[in-house]
Specification:
binds benzoyl-formic acid, TIM Barrel, 8-stranded parallel sheet, single chain, binds flavin mononucleotide, two-stranded antiparallel ribbon
Amino acid sequence: MPVITTIDDLKRLHERRVPRMFYDYAESGSWTEQTFRENTTDFEQIRLRQRVAVDMSGRSTKTQMIGQDVAMPVALAPVGLTGMQHADGEIKAARAAEAFGVPFTLSTMSINSIEDVAEATTKPFWFQLYTMRDEDYVARLIQRAKDAKCSALVITLDLQILGQRHKDLKNGLSAPPKLTAKTLANLATKWSWGIGMMGAKRRSFGNIVGHVHGVDDTANLGAWTAEQFDPTLDWGKIAKLKEQWGGKVILKGILDADDARMALKVGADAIIVSNHGGRQLDGAISSIRALPSILEAVGDQIEVHLDSGIRSGQDVLKAMAMGAKGTYIGRAFIYGLGAMGQAGVTSALEVIHKELDLSMALCGETSVAGLGKHNLLIPKGFEGDWQP
Ligand SMILES: Cc1cc2nc3c(=O)[nH]c(=O)nc-3n(C[C@H](O)[C@H](O)[C@H](O)COP(=O)(O)O)c2cc1C
Ligand SMILES: O=C(O)C(=O)c1ccccc1
């Protein structure tokens, strides 16, 4: 077993072990990838305040997200096609999250189905919803998530149409995913991935294929999304979905204070400040830069979470100290999954937990609740003086 001490170690192994088509799909941002890059470089702009001679014994990273206990404020973000990174990837990731004590969010676009994951775990997980044109299908999907006892519905709002990712088009990534001649050639060097996949429970969209008609035979992810997703989704429809669900609702993909106010108005329990990991609107600001103005607008009335660009426990610390009440990792756990399956996801969580715990101690903090702006050195003008 290789010694893993950083998320980057897992990323290198992921690249080595997973066919290029799926590695590229995970790693890509849209268009020039400016937003994708700035999601991580903007975290680097913020510095941590080192404090000394503070009793650091009895530290804890435990806290709550939407009223649920978490071992640290880091959930697994919904990631489509997770089961193509590793056989039964959603089951593996959900089990790793459950054992660690952090929430797992299952994507609508997952390979393992809601029922597969419910069967393989003992605690409730969260379900992420994409709304399709077929409203009956959406209603059935919500019912399936209820039947599986999912404890939150995460409705993603920043992807009713897909941002263009060049590599996916060049690699011929289709939806539902199919192996092309190019990928099969690439497979020759990815034996363990291929052998695993042969034994996988599923190799196509588990929540969709067999549950809705006319979904196969599409050239690429963008064309498929344009055909299937509901382009008319608006705040009125979001309010109706919330009513249909009846439980906790998290609205994902908020990057603007005005939208955060709308989310508050429809009665969401939490929002996720997110630009979808730089995969949607290239040129949008990083989520860590968007966070302060959103907190100012709604932070005292709704739980504000953040994702996009988190690669370390220091990043988690920075987001929490700025005022977020929770964070999510997307690629960071996908690297682990592609590298080593369930053990790799556990490893990603351990890396981030250790970084968070040690950095809290070196900042002179012993609890998540104690974190605040006093832990940060934020450069003047960090939020940008761009005018809407
Ligand atoms: C490969 C990949 C697939 C994704 N699929 C979904 C999805 O199905 N639903 C969704 O709401 N977000 C999806 N996202 C966005 C993630 O939930 C999350 O917002 C993003 O990964 C956070 O950025 P990070 O990867 O820098 O942590 C996806 C992200 C990646 C990298
Ligand atoms: O790739 C993504 O980011 C994503 O969310 C998605 C959208 C449509 C189909 C599969 C994944």
